[in-house]
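pasting for ref
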Amino acid sequence: MNRILSLLLAACLSVPIFAAQPPAQTPPPVKHSDDDRIYDEVRRKLANDVDVKGAGIDVAVKSGVVTLSGKVHTEHGKEKAEKLTKKTKGVTSVVNNLVATESEK
């Protein structure tokens, strides 16, 4: 009987014991990134504002930094576009490269 127990014990000790491993981490499902959301929201705000509506404004977003470029009708429109953009959630800063095509009267 001792010989059988010794063989069983030896067999058990020779089998590697693995610690329980947590399941492999899977990345969360891809969501609409913050930059994409910011882009959409800024474009919507600019398109719906009477002071900048119809202007040729290009919007680029990288890590919360929004770059506005293109042309607006007035200096006021340029300032308004920047102000609207800054009020958008997630925007960390605004680079305003807009050019006013008409002078204020």
